[in-house]
Design brief:
alpha/beta, TIM Barrel
């Protein structure tokens, strides 16, 4: 499988030291022969079946680039595609308004964003339509957890706001109630232009956000093999502004792709590379992320399933494939099919998050709060997921072995048959020697019972309450805030809301 020549990536000089860097070895499962077979398969799918682009602007660009276009279907030359892919940077930075929270995408860096897109919210026993109050509380929760680099974008759908203008309120909330990176709206080209304009206000102009991007936007393929008009409109706007785009096939094996993992991987490569090639045709050097959303369906009910062995294996394969093309990649998250934040929700989330780390995923969406197959944003699950991520980040730190950690002096002090509880080595390190989870209970049964026998979801609800009570809005220049608010008011009026 031939690797394209690469454009050098920019060094991550602005990255913050607190961002998680995964220096553990990558878990690669595909042999050289398997990679070669996938190479031949995506080339065949690209040239013989083609990819549909529901945009005359996109089709015209592809025609001008010498590609064969019939109707809305483009039959792309694989060698041309690889030439385009090679124009994308290997790594890039995304600036946050708090420079200490800027992120580096690519290499060994892993950045985590919250759940994206659910129309419903679960809080305690209540499942309801999401509201803007819910949206703001999720944004504040994301601000409070250091393991999250972003609140994401549509953390939940604020159904009590007008559809045409709610993207303005969501973007304003992300910009003012957090100081982390944010995701752009992709419902339409106009919405994308609004997000870009607000980014220009926040960061001091178009030149500033083109020099260092300020947002990441999700461009989903309408699998199988179709890029729709709205997503392509948004892609054009963000690419022209030099803002990173996550070109993501949305594949549930058995529904949006054939049932076998190799066929799904072939389709995923074809869809992702075709979108990346278009992005580079719009603006060479556009930062892109090789996206993956790969899972299965229940073959009895047809319902989507998450946290499955197949999705975990597909994620490991995707990481290896993206590295082969020299591209940063997106995948994984705390995915589950469970309806409530119970044991199933925990083990399915871990079944996806563990391969997320093993694959070295660079941009992790749906890291916290995903429930019920992505239909629901859950406050309690948000906390549970942050706990899992924090533990995995601790587990994936390289082990340091030196004279102090080998503790020979402690053996000399304790001798044979003694214990180390009071040893000097222990006394010097007991406060920090072991990771202490913020959510788990290690109480004995009597103490746990005396507290009301709280289960994990109950304890998570208490964490939500305490975090929101302690929340303080990050500082923002009053003039910038006023300009952003004025823009939202003006655009809302222009949209008729």
């Amino acid at each position: 499988m031939r690797r394209p020549a690469r454009r050098p990536g920019r060094p991550g000089a602005g990255r913050r030291s607190a961002m998680f860097v995964n220096r553990m070895p990558r878990y690669e499962v595909l042999s050289e022969q398997a990679m070669d077979q996938l190479d031949g398969a995506w080339r065949r799918l690209m040239t013989e079946v083609g990819v549909q682009f529901a945009s005359e602007d996109a089709l015209e660009l592809l025609r001008q680039a010498g590609q064969r276009v019939e109707g809305e279907t483009a039959y792309l030359d694989p060698e041309w595609v690889l030439e385009q892919v090679a124009k994308a940077p290997r790594e890039f930075d995304v600036q946050a308004r708090n420079p200490q929270r800027s992120v580096h995408i690519g290499g060994d860096s892993m950045a985590f964003g919250a759940v994206y897109g659910p129309p419903f919210v679960r809080e305690g026993d209540a499942r309801r339509d999401g509201t803007f109050d819910d949206y703001q509380r999720f944004a504040r929760l994301a601000q409070s957890f250091d393991v999250l680099d972003s609140a994401g974008g549509v953390v939940c759908e604020p159904n009590d706001l007008p559809l045409d203008s709610r993207h303005l309120d969501m973007t304003l909330a992300l910009m003012t109630q957090t100081d982390k990176i944010y995701m752009g709206n992709v419902v339409s080209g106009q919405n994308a232009r609004d997000v870009i304009a607000m980014g220009e206000i926040l960061f001091g102009g178009r030149e500033a956000i083109e020099a260092t991007p300020a947002s990441i936007s999700l461009i989903n393929c309408n699998s199988p093999l179709r890029w729709d008009d709205r997503m392509l409109e948004a892609l054009f706007e963000y690419a022209r502004a030099g803002q990173p785009v996550v070109l993501t096939p949305f594949i549930l094996m058995g529904a949006m792709s054939p049932v076998t993992i190799p066929a799904a991987l072939t389709q995923q490569i074809t869809e992702a590379l075709s979108g990346i090639a278009l992005a580079q045709t719009i603006r060479p050097g556009t930062p892109v992320i090789f996206g993956s959303f790969l899972s299965t369906i229940d073959m009895q009910s047809g319902s989507p399933t998450f946290g499955t062995p197949e999705s975990g294996l597909g994620l490991l394969c995707t990481g290896q494939i993206a590295r082969h093309f020299g591209l940063p990649f997106r995948g994984g998250g705390a995915l589950t099919s469970s309806q409530v934040p119970d044991a199933q929700a925990g083990y399915e989330a871990t079944m996806t998050l563990l391969p997320t780390f093993l694959a070295g995923t660079n941009w992790v969406m749906h890291s916290a709060g995903w429930l019920e197959g992505g239909l629901v944003s859950s406050f309690e699950k948000f906390v549970v997921d942050c706990q899992i991520i924090e533990m995995l980040q601790h587990e994936f730190r390289p082990l340091e072995i030196d004279e102090g950690s080998l503790a020979f002096d402690a053996h000399v002090e304790v001798g044979h048959g003694g214990h180390f509880l009071g040893a000097m080595h222990t006394m010097e390190r007991f406060r920090t020697c072991f990771y202490r989870p913020f959510l788990s209970s290690a109480d004995n049964f009597e103490r746990w019972t005396s507290k009301g026998a709280p289960d994990t979801a109950t304890r998570a609800s208490a964490v939500v309450a305490s975090r929101l009570e302690a929340y303080e809005a990050p500082p923002l220049d009053d003039a910038v805030r006023e300009e952003l608010e004025a823009f939202v008011v003006r655009r809302r009026a222009e949209l008729g809301d």
